[in-house]
């Protein structure tokens, strides 16, 4: 029963966060899913449910998508996705988490100290590549996008829409790559199916929350999520 309750709470909370900000499902859900499932199962459940959220929202937010940036993110991720599955199969995951956590924490501190960067085509492609690699390796595409968009002070509407549109490609491709190279099982699909009603609840509540969140509050939420992610990965890699 405790397992079921924890699963319910995680999926609803992560769905609300993903819907209201455009990121956060994998950041919030993956750490807890890893406590309940095998790594490949946790990553694939995350991919399936995140893909469902992106599909459900894309029609409502399509006008806010920056198509030019989206194309470059996808271009970069096409290379990153293959690199990421190689890392997942061959490299020590704890070492990868340690490196990623340090980078996230350092960059987040710089952003909090008002460090900003200019958006360029090359940086779009590079960010997409890193995001793709982290998707197939540890199931977390969000941190690179979040850091980049926060550093370029992207408006919350464009951030959410472009990120969710990017997820449509990267999650679908990552799921395909994961199933081909790492395999899958019934647990992934049964658990994902049971979670769908919870995702619908999260979609409804997240849409309401997005309308109430100002740009300044959105920025604070961004920093909190990044710090949480960095600290989690750091602790996880040390255990």
From TrEMBL:
Topology class, membrane: Multi-pass membrane protein
Keyword Transport included in the entry's annotation: yes
Ranges annotated as spanning the membrane: 43-61, 73-92, 98-115, 164-182, 188-205, 217-235
InterPro entries: TM_pro_TauE-like (IPR002781), TSUP (IPR052017)
Domain of life from the UniProt record: Bacteria
Keywords, comma-separated and alphabetical: Cell membrane, Membrane, Transmembrane, Transmembrane helix, Transport
Entry keyword annotation includes Membrane: yes
Pfam families linked: TauE (PF01925)
Protein's cellular compartments: Cell membrane
Similarity comment: Belongs to the 4-toluene sulfonate uptake permease (TSUP) (TC 2.A.102) family.
Name of the protein in its database record: Probable membrane transporter protein
Source species of the chain: Halobacillus naozhouensis
Lineage: Bacteria, Bacillati, Bacillota, Bacilli, Bacillales
């Amino acid at each position: 029963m405790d397992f079921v309750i924890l699963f319910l709470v995680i999926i609803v909370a992560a769905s609300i966060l993903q819907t209201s900000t455009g990121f956060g499902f994998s950041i919030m859900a993956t750490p807890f899913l890893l406590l309940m499932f095998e790594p490949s199962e946790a990553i694939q459940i995350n991919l399936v449910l995140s893909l469902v959220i992106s599909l459900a929202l894309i029609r409502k937010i399509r006008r806010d998508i920056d198509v030019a940036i989206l194309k470059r993110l996808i271009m970069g991720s096409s290379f990153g996705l293959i690199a990421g599955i190689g890392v997942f199969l061959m490299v020590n995951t704890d070492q990868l988490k340690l490196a990623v956590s340090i980078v996230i924490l350092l960059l987040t501190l710089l952003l909090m100290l008002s460090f900003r960067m200019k958006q360029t085509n090359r940086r779009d492609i590079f960010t997409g590549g890193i995001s793709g690699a982290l998707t197939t390796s540890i199931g977390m595409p969000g941190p690179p996008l979040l850091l980049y968009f926060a550093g370029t002070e992207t408006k919350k509407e464009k951030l959410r829409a472009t990120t969710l549109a990017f997820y449509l490609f990267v999650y679908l491709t990552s799921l395909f790559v994961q199933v081909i190279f790492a395999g899958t099982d019934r647990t992934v699909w049964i658990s994902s199916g049971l979670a769908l009603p919870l995702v619908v609840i999260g979609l409804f509540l997240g849409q309401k929350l997005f309308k109430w969140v100002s740009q300044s509050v959105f920025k604070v939420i961004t920093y909190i999520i990044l710090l949480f992610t960095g600290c989690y990965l750091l602790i996880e890699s040390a255990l």
